[in-house]
Amino acid sequence: MTNDDFIMGLPRRPRMGDASQGAIVGAIALGILTGGWGGALVGGLAGSALANQRQPLEMAVREHFNSRRYDVMFYYPAPRAIKVTFRYGPRDYWTVESALPDNLQLSPEDTADWLYGNLVRVQLPKLLPQLKRAS
Q1: pLDDT tens, N- to C-terminus, the chain (135 residues)
Q2: CA atoms of 81 and 97, how far apart (whole Å)
Q3: DSSP letter string over the chain?
């Protein structure tokens, strides 16, 4: 990882090229549904150019939770915050939130990166001990 992979000490969203096979197949399927086979072909051709772009915030969050075997049930975006309700057991749900402080003024891309990094590196780790006690 380089300094370009961090914002204010927090990890930025992963690049599209780092997405799981399931996420990539899902994106192709969405292309087919919205634009037919032509949409999927254009999407495939543009794939190499897009591989270096950051994943959309929701995709990055869902990938992170899936990698930890938590099912994202609801994703609530806001201009300066995100809230995620996820399942961590058969009937166990919890909500975690990341909110950009008022004193930070960032571009939309940097805001998405900061929200992702804060969620996965600060907010979720603070929450995990509570989940273990609640189980």
Answers
A1: 677 899 999 999 999 887 765 555 555 555 556 555 555 555 555 555 667 789 999 999 999 999 999 999 999 999 999 999 999 888 899 999 999 999 999 999 999 999 999 999 999 999 988 877 766
A2: 7
A3: --GGGEETTEEPPPBGGGS-HHHHHHHHHHHHHHHHHHHHHHHHHHHHHHTTSBPPHHHHHHHHHHHTT-EEEEEEEETTEEEEEEE-SSS-EEEEEEE--TT----HHHHHHHHHHHIIIIIHHHHHHHHHHH-
Q: How many domains does the chain have?
A: 1
How far is residue 110's CA from residue 94's CA, in Å, rounded to a whole number? 26
The pair of structure tokens assigned to 23 is: 């996420």
Q: Which amino acid makes up residue 61?
A: V
At 113, which amino acid appears? D
Domain limits for position 116: 3-134
